[in-house]
């Protein structure tokens, strides 16, 4: 099934409903996720997909799309440490701003609105805690693999920020199967923190660690992605 995310809203919402049902068939208490605001996502030529490991919550049957809409209104709550970095990086890419040129979310809370322009998915959509080992993550990926790959295909991202790091090499390989002709992985040496990227004419994939990690600090984490995106697109 192919959907043109540019102009087929009705088809997309039908697809999303069916995909939610597929997720609930795997786990009736799962967290559903995806495109936060279809109209805003489809209108932007830069389509950013964030991939994280897991929900980091024991609540049941939550809708991450609704959660991110709340966060986009400045209500970061317990997820502040994760979503501040997602907001800074997303804002920097969409507005061609280096992290050093941005202001704190506390000063400009409206910058959180960029969350409405992204797609956001977890590999493990089942509720759980803040830590997960490599093997368990891989098992959950295999459980939700068909859903995840369908999301990537339908959302047609131009930028994927895969924050599973080195934990899930099978996901990297599957992305390459979906998006042919990705370049060989290029390691980002600016911070030596294990961030790398692949690129072709339609897509840039950043493989990085979780945005909550903040190592060694937010400045380095955000710059590794924003500055290299600007360099790749010759906007630095």
Helix content: 40-55%
Terminus-to-terminus distance:
38 Å
Quickly give the structural class: alpha/beta
Write down how many β-strands occur, each being a DSSP E stretch of 2 or more residues: 7
Can you tell me the residue ranges where pLDDT is under 50 for at least 5 consecutive residues? none
Main β sheet profile? 7 strands, mixed
Q: What's the helix count?
A: 7
Q: How much is the average pLDDT? A: 86
As a whole number of angstroms, the C-alpha radius of gyration is 17 Å
Notes on the structure:
The protein is α/β, with parallel strands linked by helices and 236 residues long. The protein has one domain (9-158, 214-232). The protein contains seven helices and seven strands. It has helices at residues 9-26, 38-43, 64-72, 80-95, 134-155, 169-178, 218-232; strands at 34-35, 48-52, 118-122, 159-162, 186-187, 196-199, 204-207. The chain has a seven-stranded mixed β-sheet with strand order 1-3-2-4-7-6-5. A hairpin with an 8-residue loop joins strand 5 and strand 6 (196-199). The radius of gyration is 17 Å and the shape is globular.
Question: Short description, anyone?
Answer:
This protein is α/β, with parallel strands linked by helices and 236 residues long.
């Amino acid at each position: 099934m192919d959907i043109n995310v540019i102009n087929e809203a009705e088809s997309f919402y039908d697809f999303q409903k069916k995909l939610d049902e597929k997720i609930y068939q795997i786990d009736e208490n799962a967290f559903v996720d995806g495109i936060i605001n279809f109209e805003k996502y489809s209108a932007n030529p830069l389509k950013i997909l964030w991939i994280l490991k897991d929900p980091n919550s024991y609540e049941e049957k939550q809708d991450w799309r609704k959660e991110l809409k709340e966060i986009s209104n400045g209500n970061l709550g317990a997820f502040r440490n994760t979503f501040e970095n997602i907001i800074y990086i997303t804002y920097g890419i969409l507005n061609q701003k280096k992290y050093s040129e941005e202001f704190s979310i506390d000063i400009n809370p409206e910058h959180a609105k960029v969350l409405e322009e992204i797609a956001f998915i977890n590999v493990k959509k089942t509720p759980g805690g803040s830590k997960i080992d490599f093997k368990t993550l891989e098992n959950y990926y295999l459980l939700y693999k068909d859903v995840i790959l369908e999301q990537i295909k339908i959302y047609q991202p131009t930028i994927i920020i895969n924050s599973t790091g080195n934990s899930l090499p099978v996901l990297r390989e599957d992305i390459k199967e979906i998006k042919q002709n990705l370049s060989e992985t290029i390691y980002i040496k600016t911070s030596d923190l294990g961030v790398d990227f692949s690129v072709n004419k339609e897509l840039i994939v950043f493989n990085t660690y979780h945005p909550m990690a903040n190592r060694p600090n937010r400045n380095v984490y955000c710059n590794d992605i924003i500055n290299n995106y600007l360099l790749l697109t010759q906007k630095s």
